[in-house]
């Protein structure tokens, strides 16, 4: 019985209404399709998929505004809603929660939530005014009924569809606090980075009911208080049933717990949630976030908890309203509010505390020790037994100590910026690297992969066959081997890269297809090879993809690269976008300019390096270089270069080389004077 109540049959068995709606939609009968989905909502348990289809259909036919209108969602605040690509978002629906919200917002902001997307459902207690005061809250209101909207998640789906694509999102109610192993010292950002790194898209949690050691009606909560001060206890044996759960049977779920202990068999709540997930348009959000449609291997083995503060005095005060709501809309059958009512009527002093079962919350490690939460499983999460794999930030901070090779900090930052821009613009694709050496840049690329994407590297991994007269760098690669690359890569990623061990000139035979969002050309330095590599890269990148060419200005051995790069640029085949001392970043002229434009904007406005905007062969570029102190140079007598350290002179020479040929050439002579090179 439990199985039937809590774990509905797989969607495919209940797909009748969905299928009919889909057929109608395909044949262009949009209004009838919508009606079929709506009928499904009346008769089928497949509500999460039906709501998702409704949102999809409305977006496709009436635009996102159509979906907002359908669900009666009206924007209340007027704050700027430009969301940075790495922001972590929290979705919540509220009704009369003015008491709980101040701590709820403060706690989750403390974890690392950047913005809250909140739907207010007819609050009358000042909730709205309170939310409007918080600069991180964006607020919508709807007068529609909560339960038919799949316990509010249909509204969240519309908001996420509009604002949260590719973002990590937390969905929690105002009487819940998200908790996870080492929450005291580990930010939500770190957690999400680790999940990304492990190829996970969702993290489950146990819903842990908290209570006081006094009667429920005496557990009075005052606004702003930490609710664990009022209700610090939970049941050590936190479940009565565990098993594979969810319509997709993709994670281990729990049911029962203190409610079952205190209220008997009529109360058998499902205690699992998937509150944290990376939202994509194909992500299904079940009612109460009790499950989602990720593949089992994409669901983290690490398990958190959602501390649930239901059993406080406010619960009794609101019981009547809640009963009415549920009676009207037939809510969750596994949770009987009339059972709560009866129990409280027969014992108004009802107290959930029992010394045989109850335990006071101490910290997150305690919940791990009790098996309520769990650390990531080493085997499935790519985390070593004693030392977890470095995060991307750790890698970037220490890569020069960790891996031999040629990859600068500034380029690591640009690679990450490209990834962010592409995520923000919905560009999906693999990464190609020609010339991996020991993996220094490939490892960084590995961190940026999404689960469905792959890294392909092409390298000879030997200097045999290279001609020392033509390949001046051949001597460097004497000790290089494919195994050395693979071992290095495995120190940071458990999913190996696809390795093509042959010359990049033969890549066409691999049938790779146009599927790459970054193609990094960092192999040979010979003109004939590089011009072919650039052509191959341009062939393989998707719309919104970026081609990166290394060593485009390096002397003495890489002038062949320079010749090939500028040939491609001046022939209009490669549009230059950005350049660093080491690499030139460009895109195909056949593709939309969006990624390139956003990247230029990032480079000139947000990057932590000073960029020089200039026009090169009629293209707008940003070049990262130390800032040119033009007023100082113009208005003051230059510092006598006597005794100037050689590095400074080199730095200035580099700067000089950088601005050669650009429209800032007028600074050249000043620099020349400074360097006494005339
Ligand atoms: C400068 S290193 C790459 C640096 C590397 N990306 C890093 O982050 O350290 C150049 C690499 O290109 C490889 N290479 C040279 N000629 C090649 C060719 N024709 N095809 C494929 N790889 C080649 C070399 O074996 C070497 O590993």
Number of strands: 22
- Estimate the helix proportion, in percent: 25-40%
Strand order of the largest sheet: 1-4-3-2-5-11-7-12-6
Overall mean pLDDT stands at 86
Number of helices: 24
Characterize the biggest β-sheet: 9 strands, mixed
Derived structural class? alpha/beta
Query: In percent terms, what proportion of residues is strand?
Result: 15-25%
Separation of the first and last Cα atoms? 91 Å
Q: How many structural domains in the coordinates?
A: 4
Instruction: From the alpha carbons, calculate the radius of gyration and give it in angstroms.
Output: 29 Å
- The unreliable regions are 1-13, 382-386, 631-644, 656-678
Bound molecules: S-adenosylmethionine
Given the C-alpha coordinates, what overall shape results?
A: elongated
Overview of this protein structure:
The chain is an alpha/beta fold and 678 residues long. It has four domains: 1-75, Serine Threonine Protein Phosphatase 5, Tetratricopeptide repeat (Alpha Horseshoe), CATH 1.25.40; 76-378; 392-625, 3-Layer(aba) Sandwich (Rossmann fold); 628-678, no CATH class. The chain is 37% helix and 17% strand. The protein has 24 helices and 22 strands. The strands form four sheets. The protein has a nine-stranded mixed sheet, sandwiched between helices. Helix 2 runs antiparallel to helix 3 (30-43) and helix 19 crosses helix 20. The longest helix is centred in the first third of the chain and has 24 residues, at 47-70.
